[in-house]
Amino acid sequence: MTTPSNEAAGILAQIKSDLSQFEREPELRNSVKDHYQHLENLAASLGRLGIDGKAIDHHVSQIFEKYRVELVRNVGRLKRA
Questions:
Q1: What is the mean pLDDT of residues 64-78?
Q2: Which domain holds residue 65?
Q3: What gap in Å lies between CA 27 and CA 48, rounded to an integer?
Q4: What is the pLDDT of residues 18-57, one digit of tens each?
Q5: What is the pLDDT of residue 36?
Q6: Is 66 domain-assigned?
Q7: Whole-number Å distance between alpha carbons of 74 and 22
């Protein structure tokens, strides 16, 4: 596991908190954890490249928002099925 920069840790903590509601669903748990791990690795990689913490936060949060939209849409589909 890679370690994100201190700057990126704030946005990752927020994302982890946001995702926790979806981890309660057994059919989503592994996918949600995997996606979070990918975001964590991305933040750490960007930090190692010397990218500014604010820029990392911005990029990671943009990627997460796209994922969140799809996740909420799919959870709605599961609940209707």
A1: 88
A2: 6-80
A3: 34
A4: 999 888 888 888 889 999 999 999 999 999 999 999 999 9
A5: 94
A6: yes
A7: 11
**Sign of the alpha-carbon dihedral angle for 41, 43, 46, 50:** negative
The number of domains in the chain is 1
pTM: 0.79
- Which long-range CB contacts under 8 A does 57-65 form with residues at least 24 apart? 57/7, 57/8, 57/10, 57/11, 60/8, 60/11, 60/12, 60/15, 61/11, 61/15, 63/39, 64/15, 64/18, 64/39
User: Does any domain span residue 1?
Assistant: no
Tell me how far apart the alpha carbons of residues 74 and 81 are, in angstroms, rounded to a whole number: 11
In a domain, 55, yes or no: yes
